[in-house]
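Dear V.,

Thank you for sending over the compound details. I've combined the ligand you provided, zinc ion, with the protein sequence from our construct and run the structure prediction for the complex. I'm sharing the raw inputs here so there's no ambiguity about protonation or stereochemistry in the SMILES, which I know was a concern on your side last time.
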Amino acid sequence: MRKALILTFLIAFSICYSEASKHTAVQGIRYSTYDSYTRVVVDINGSVEYTQNRISNPDRLFFDLKNCSLSSSIKPRLVIEDGLLKSIRIAQNTPDNVRLVFDVNKLNKYYSFMLEEPNRLVIDIYSGEQKHPSKVKSEGSRKKSPISTPKRFKGVRTVVIDPGHGGKDPGAIGPGGLKEKDVTLQVSRKLGKLLEKKHNLKVVYTRKKDKFVSLNGRTHIANSKKADLFISVHVNASRKSSAKGIETYFLNWTNNKEDMRVAARENKISFKKMKKVQDSTQYILQELARKNKNEESMRLAHTVQNSMVRTMKKKYSRIDDLGVKFAMFYVLVGAEMPSILVEVSFISNKIEEKRLKTDEYKSKLAEAIAKGINAYITESTLIVNYDPQAIAGG
Ligand SMILES: [Zn+2]
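Below is the predicted structure of the protein with zinc ion bound, written out as structure tokens.
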């Protein structure tokens, strides 16, 4: 019932607003197949206004991109055949309109949203079937899991650690010149070592050195490695030099201005753009957040935040607990596992920047995050008949 309502709502609100300009062109089209969905990304060299529609018999999705043209390199048909999506056809159907037609097999729900920097239209198509991780890729088609399988907590084996920023993107820079990208990498490496050695977990890094990785690429790594948890490590910054403390985020829609400001900075877009993106994706985002095992992400955020505050306070004075918050972080959009983004301190605050320069403080932060992750795992195993789908409400 709820799904039907959401879908109706999506279709009713199919005209999505964004700034349109002439001369925008579709430059590429790519896709990734995951266990529960297929993501199609249409690269465009500007933002576009678009409409979407669904037609059955046979099942097809249409996307019309207004005031848009096709770059000469685009092929008219992309064959996918991943069990969910058969193919994508693309054509300049009027002088000002580009039409994409998705021929689908077992469509249940779909979501589309525009992201910026770079501009792209993202379309996620869900089959609505149960996950069957070991079979999907090898067989090239999705098969239903037996419904009678009891859903229990299967444990956490692989953790993806995502050191924020890197390479050409330094992240925030402190008054003393300290770069966020260096702190996030150092804390992440320490955290990874602890998780491997002390907690016997498999760790995958989205980057192990000072290099640039796109936000979408980071989520892709987590999904393709079938990670059980995704931890994005960042350092906060504020125009107010007195701002300090620790906060942990998970993905969801918010209208809290300060939280949106943090997300805008991490997404590398302006606050104004952030607001616009949020306004056009509110309902889609809430549903996406549910898909991302939102309740679990929230629980993970709380255990990590609590551990960080408690552990840091034991050793350092004036540690502020800014709590658990949520906002739309691009890096968390599409992650298929419980995922959080920690803002370990404020690089813009002189005292915290000074602390962040010391190895001792970074080691303590890593220890605190590791303890929090471990507490989450321990707590999870205590929940009998753990069922994330029941918790997430479907
Ligand atoms: Zn950051």
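A first observation: Residues 164-165, 171, 180, 234, 266 surround zinc ion (CB under 6 Å).

Warm regards,
I. M.
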